[in-house]
Automatic annotation (TrEMBL):
Disulfide bonds join 14-59, 47-79, 173-284, 244-265. The keyword Disulfide bond applies. It is found in: Secreted. Keywords: Copper, Disulfide bond, Glycoprotein, Metal-binding, Monooxygenase, Oxidoreductase, Secreted, Signal. One of its GO terms (molecular function) is peptidylglycine monooxygenase activity. Its EC number is 1.14.17.3. Binds 2 Cu(2+) ions per subunit. The keyword Signal applies. This is peptidylglycine monooxygenase. It catalyses: a [peptide]-C-terminal glycine + 2 L-ascorbate + O2 = a [peptide]-C-terminal (2S)-2-hydroxyglycine + 2 monodehydro-L-ascorbate radical + H2O.
Length: 350
């Protein structure tokens, strides 16, 4: 960020960097230069065209009308065209290094002509004190081509949860493209109420369906990309599914939304492919509760979901023994599925 000044908590500000159009650049590592005291999260996007030609612009869903603002940034989308997610950071996560021979390919002949950095500001105390912000990412790059190209698939939901309730936010999409993806890292994201996020490859049909875990982690821990522990491939015909378990400790409904007081259910899957043909449809969404659950998708057999799908894992992906979590302990929830005239029990055990 080029010495920006955020004027409101939950401001989303963007800045862009034009890539070399004549030759490709290969990104092999991401090193955050930010603190969670200032930034709620940082996202790095690849764009064919940035959302604005301005040096800094407001690129969030929040539109502030506070006339006392010292800065008035133009409001525009992140990308005007060709948007793809490259990297995400939150909660003081550490550096992410890609495996050998794997890199994000940008610039040159690719559709990514610009990198756009988005920072969601969680605190404006330093701006009130007259300071500016240079939060960002230090990228390790090379001009040497790699045989494998990295990409990111994002699964996220809409939806809402009632007060003082345990809820699951679920999303699944079928891979329609002729592609073979090798997931190697995952990242979970929720706000204050998230207990555990899990991602799965779903292969096969009916009683032969198999759910294979890609990753599972408490989103209350540093939100970097963590290694996938299994050698998994995802190909045409497979489903990619994610579930976020949350407990609403508030006395009011909490919805999915952009502010720190809203919630988010996000599961990021970083993968590589041989060559450079990445997934065309790299964002998978659902309407979330109460409109969408796995059990209402006739292609998914909820009886095949692993028993530990809704359990917070032990360290390093879960909190240390005795460390508190929102939501309490040993809660049970009945998850009704009207369309299937059956009930599916989800368990939370830490």
């Amino acid at each position: 960020m080029p010495d920006v000044v955020a004027n409101h908590v939950d401001d989303y500000l963007c800045t862009s960097l034009e890539m070399d159009k004549d030759k490709s650049t290969y990104i092999t590592a991401f090193n955050p230069s930010a603190t969670s005291k200032d930034a709620h999260h940082i996202l790095l996007f690849g764009c064919t065209e940035p959302g604005s030609e301005k040096k800094i612009w407001n690129c969030g869903e929040m539109v502030n009308t506070d006339d006392s603002s010292e800065e008035d940034y133009e409001t525009a989308p992140i990308c005007a065209s060709g948007s793809t997610i490259i990297y995400a950071w939150a909660m003081d996560a550490e550096k992410t290094e890609l495996p050998n021979d794997v890199a994000f390919k940008v610039g040159g002949s690719t559709s990514i002509k610009y990198l756009v950095l988005q920072v969601h500001y969680a605190n404006i105390d330093k701006f009130k004190a007259g300071k500016t912000d240079r939060s960002g990412l230090v990228l390790t790059t090379t001009s040497n081509p790699t045989p494998k190209t990295a990409g990111v698939m994002l699964l996220l939901t809409d939806g809402a949860m009632a007060s003082h309730s345990l809820e699951v936010f679920e999303v699944a999409c079928k891979i329609q493209q002729d592609i073979v993806m090798h997931p190697f890292a995952f990242r979970t994201h929720a706000h204050k109420l998230g207990l555990v996020n899990s991602g799965y490859r779903v292969r096969g049909e009916n009683d032969d369906q198999e759910w294979t875990e890609i990753g599972r982690r408490s989103p209350q821990l540093p939100q970097m990309f963590y290694p996938v522990q299994k050698d998994i491939t995802i190909q045409q015909g497979d489903y990619v599914a994610a579930v976020c378990t949350m407990y609403n400790t508030n006395s009011h409904v909490v919805r999915i939304g952009p502010t720190g007081n809203d919630e988010m259910c996000n599961f990021y899957m970083m993968y590589w492919v041989d060559g450079d043909q990445l997934l065309d449809e790299d964002v998978c969404t659902s309407s979330g509760p109460p409109r969408y659950y796995f059990g209402r998708d006739r292609h998914l057999n909820i009886d095949k979901i692993p028993d530990d799908a809704f359990h917070i894992p032990p360290p390093p992906n879960g909190p240390a023994p005795g460390e508190p979590l929102q939501g309490g302990h040993h809660m049970m929830m009945q998850h009704g599925e009207q369309s299937h005239k059956k009930q599916h029990r989800y368990r939370y055990i830490n």
